[in-house]
Amino acid sequence: MSVGNGLGSLARALQRGPSEDIMRKESAAKRGDDLRKEYDLSKLEGGVRGKCYRRATAGTNLVLIEPDLAKMFPDIEAVNRALRVLAEASQTASASKRRRPR
Fold first, then answer.
1. Percentages helix, strand, coil for the chain, rounded to the nearest 5?
2. Scanning 21, 23, 73, 99, which has its CA 20 to 30 A from the CA of 56?
3. What is the rounded distance in angstroms from the CA atom of residue 51 to the CA atom of residue 54?
4. Is the pTM of this model over 0.70?
5. CB atoms closer than 10 angstroms to residue 73
6. What is the pLDDT of residues 28-39, one digit of tens each?
7. CA-CA distance, 7 to 12, in Å (whole number)?
């Protein structure tokens, strides 16, 4: 259906198909080694694998849980609630052991 000014059919002609905007990246195998010849890797010194690993992970407390537990605790609130219950039970049990007379 064209608009009264004749631009309706032009607009349809200018529309792109959904796959025309997607840029496909070439795989690494097809690209090959794109390092320039003037870069001599043997002259690079001091490269240490993982030298910043400890510093990068020092302030994190990320813990991965097993898939069966992930089903039982689907979100952070469920995990935190369960850990608080466990921590409270542990504190209660250790406090009652300390109060027992020998």
1. 50, 0, 50
2. 73
3. 8
4. no
5. 15
6. 556 666 777 777
7. 9
